[in-house]
Amino acid sequence: MGESGGGGGCCPPMDLMRSEPMQLVQLIVPMESAHLTVSYLGDLGLVQFKDLNSEKSPFQRTYAAQIKRCGEMARKIRFFKDQMSKAGVLAKDLVEKENDIDLDDVEVRLGELEAELVEINANNDKLQRSYNELMEYKLVLQKAGDFFSSAHRSATAQQTEAESPRAGADLLESPLLQEEKIDSTKQVKLGFLTGLVPREKSMVFERILFRATRGNIFTRQSVIEEPVIDPNSGEKAEKNVFVVFFSGERAKSKILKICEAFGANRYPFSEDLGKQAQMITEVSGRLTELKTTIDAGLGQRNILLETIGSKFELWNLKVRKEKAIYHTLNMLSLDVTKKCLVAEGWSPVFASKEIQDALERAAVDSNSQVGSIFQVLRTKELPPTYFRTNKFTSAIQDIVDAYGVAKYQEANPGVFTIVTFPFLFAVMFGDWGHGICLLLATMYLIVREKKLASQKLGDIMEMAFGGRYVIMMMSLFSIYTGFIYNEFFSIALPLFAPSAYDCRDASCSEATTIGLIKVRDTYPFGLDPVWHGSRSELPFLNSLKMKMSILLGVSQMNLGIIMSFFNAIFFKSKVNIWFQFVPQMIFLNSLFGYLSALIIIKWCTGSQADLYHVMIYMFLSPTDELGENQLFPHQKTVQLVLLFLALVSVPCMLLPKPFILKKQHEARHQGESYAPLEETDESLHVETNGGGSHGHEEFEFSEIFVHQLIHTIEFVLGAVSNTASYLRLWALSLAHSELSSVFYEKVLLLAWGYNNVLILIVGILVFVFATVGVLLVMETLSAFLHALRLHWVEFQNKFYEGDGYKFAPFTFILTGNEDE
Amino acid sequence: MGFLVTTLIFIVVGIIAALCARICCNKGPSTNLLHLTLVMTATVCCWMMWAIVYIAQMNPLIVPILSETE
Question: Which InterPro entries has this protein been placed in (chain A) (predicted)?
């Protein structure tokens, strides 16, 4: 519940540092220009409307009918899209901006087109079904014809055999009417049915027919080689042609029912050969006719879909826009006179002129006699936070917002994060070979920015594309730290000067036991190349990187505390300066700032003092003599003073602020102490809801005290734990360099040692895949994550509150991308 | 000596970068201040890292002991 101080006196304003000043505006719009006004404000995209009708249900609102209309039109458009994608027709991209299409015209046209399309589809389905049935009939005619003709042949063959007895091989196919040959007097009238049955059911079908008719039937089946399109389901199915011979009406009815149950389609068939041939030609003729009709129908449908496709995007956009406009209009409240609508919303102060222009244009374009009224309301509500970002800064701002949106007008950590985040990433990633690979990858994304922005990318590519500028910064800093750590795919190169170390004597006999000595000046830029691959590399590098992490960490934390100072100045809160900023600075710097100073002094003087010992005994026995751990004169006195300051600053952080706030609150509400007694008692315990802008501010002392206690404990304990947390900079950079060195030595050099081209090629491939997969992808993500954590927790908990809400203006730009 | 020279070089590079930023993207005082802040932060970060590594090697306590193979 801070009052908005309204501008810091100390520093000039900086872009992106604080939210744009926002104001609550009220627009009074006459009914006839309401639609156009909202449309123009949507184009402008700088007003966030408040819902003034929140207690009404969606059906009670003014424009519910219009929304239903738009929903109906959206449904038709989705139906068209479905049909178009099924037929493989693409919607043409939106090229011209047609502003003046009327919603009613679109509605009528959509209705007509939908009816036409539905009719064409139904006709097509019917024709297709007939076509499939005829195809099946043709197959039945062919196959059944084969049965009968082969049986006929074998029957005549049997007859000739009976007449001229001779020993001959029996035909594999026994004649169908064998019984007739044996006993021609008992001629039973046989009926038959022909049809198609699905192959997987064919055995069951036969068996059930057999059982149902007590074995008094005879079936023959023949397999159809290719799958056939079933007329009922429209899908391909494997089928068999069957012929069933039965006698009697009861058997026939049973067989009919069984055929229906199995979904076996029956087709008429005549025994006469001549008629068969005639049927086959007739069916073939009808098939070709149907085919042409169906093709014509499909052609017509495609033409219809093309016409739809040419206007599809236009209508789609229009319907979505209208729907959004009506939703917004539903949020406006109706004035008592029912002649105008009242809108309330947040907008940035700089946009006042543009909003007023839009209102005027809408009034003119809608030919209304009365103009709209624009006025600014005063309120104590917390405005939304709005940062004006460009494509470069929006990625970082999103990262910061992911943790929490900045409270209105508090300092935005994003400003420094733009640089420190890639920098800390690079400290963990340092290798200029890998940095160059990362840079190439991201330059590809940046160069093809325009083209990739309009395409629909997969989820992962979308994230990588959105963060392309961040990744570019990360890669540039990585190249820099790669030069500092002197690692190029883990090879160290003496690029700037010869190494500073050399043998102690001409024979170099002690190089592997005692080591080299420093003969020349310090290597000017970065790590001396002689360290790489030496036996004492790790002790030296670990010590260097750990101390570097501490130094960087203490710097970043100091920056965080200084940001809280800026916040205190901006919000004009003296309490926060003297009883939060100052004690915090003193505490952090008297302990960890002192440690940083000791590190630098030890490096500069080359002393052999043990810093762990110094720090720990500073607390345990501060009055002891330092002996060989003395780094500078009067160190003991300095340490005692710093310890005292640190101990004094803790109660300074804890105690004064709650009491001072209480006194300030009492001073502010001096005049209200004359309210009746009951009310004063209640007001101290009542919860205020966020919407009450004229509510009585409550002050619960115990709550404030506990809050301050928690804050103090968090800071004091956090000072130690956060400083230690920065050691992850050391840990990850060690992991990166070790992995890189393993891949280089154990893969590439090993493959090189064999002097075999094939092994070399395999080795190079493995090296490339391992580098890309493990180092460029996994290590990047890992270092990204840890750098992010360092920012979100260690940096931001020194000053950031992050409990605001983001400015979400009403705009049409997003509706192009939603698939609603 | 080498330390001071290189520190001066960093300062000069920082100033040049700030001037370049001012020349090529001059978009009003608050934006200019943002660009200046970014350039300064980047320069300070880079200098700090270089300085740490340089100072650590000025008076080393450990010397490199070469490994057996070469």
Answer: V-ATPase_116kDa_su, V-type_ATPase_116kDa_su_euka
